[in-house]
């Protein structure tokens, strides 16, 4: 994190024409949140950023004004109008900083069309500005890249190890960036912010970008979605009882799982894996153990509520892989029914739910038949 004495302003570029998207992508909703607002919310959540300058198209300025008016922010929020090209929109924002004598040590520039940039990426970039003049995230191309001439004839094959696909957010020492902008005469040649600093004796650090930090350019970028995974684990102690409940199946067994709810460790691990994959916290956030109203609650009710939560966010479960860890009883006769139950609650096909069981070969608290555990891995797609 930057030191407290460092001022940081962010520029959110949202003035594009969305030509290749075939409609205005700036306010196109993904998970019920407009693309640009999702990008803004991440910036607004970063406590080291003092202010945000939103660069809007003329058509969308009223929408941004409405959004700003309906919310309260602890940061300085400025709204300005962009230009025909990306570079000119960026220049507008930098001119605004200069003309209004905004004091800032660092400047972050981000495309509103990259709504999935993580807080960690921002933190990494801003931290490194104490050592470098600029910081740019990027990924090594996965395809072979060839240089061609005007006739589309290959000149040479480039070394991928020496190339990156640049991403935003990009991070700059304010004085260096503002001074460099004064030397620009042809804006249309710049499609990337850091290009302004090319051919200068500066230290520009490249950091590893994020595969999930895609730029939404066409409808295919929305349809393809983002794949994420989450892991869940739960273990409960066995106590004397008349049934064992796992995967919403009641198994005839002289012990039951102790817990604030019905103790269904399989469903609990599934809930945590879903929440983890969607970056929505853990089971305790939604069903705290100190809530007396939840005492003895059926875990299927809990899972149904989580299902509703992810539906509201347009999150789809691709696959669920679970392992029950128990010395006894034998689970093979019950697994098929468990898979059916889980699939029904989550409203997904049974072939997306895979449940296995294993023992610990009499090792540890599970092997001594004093507890049962479950682990789950959930794969989701975000749209």
Approximate helicity band: 25-40%
Q: Can you summarize the main beta sheet? A: 8 strands, mixed
Using the 3D structure, state the CATH architecture of the largest domain. Alpha-Beta Complex
**Topology as H/E string?**
EEEHEHEHEHEEEEEHEHEEEEHHHEHEHE
Class from helix and strand fractions: alpha/beta
What's the assembly state of these chains? single chain
How are the SSEs placed, and which strands pair?
Elements: E1 8-14, E2 29-30, E3 33-34, H1 35-45, E4 51-56, H2 61-69, E5 76-81, H3 86-99, E6 106-111, H4 119-128, E7 134-139, E8 146-148, E9 154-157, E10 165-166, E11 170-173, H5 174-181, E12 204-208, H6 219-224, E13 226-240, E14 244-246, E15 249-251, E16 255-257, H7 265-277, H8 283-286, H9 299-312, E17 315-325, H10 335-346, E18 353-358, H11 364-367, E19 371-382
Helix pairs in contact: 7-9
What descriptors fit this protein?
383 residues; alpha/beta; Spore Coat Polysaccharide Biosynthesis Protein SpsA, Chain A; 60s Ribosomal Protein L30, Chain: A; eight-stranded mixed β-sheet; five-stranded mixed β-sheet
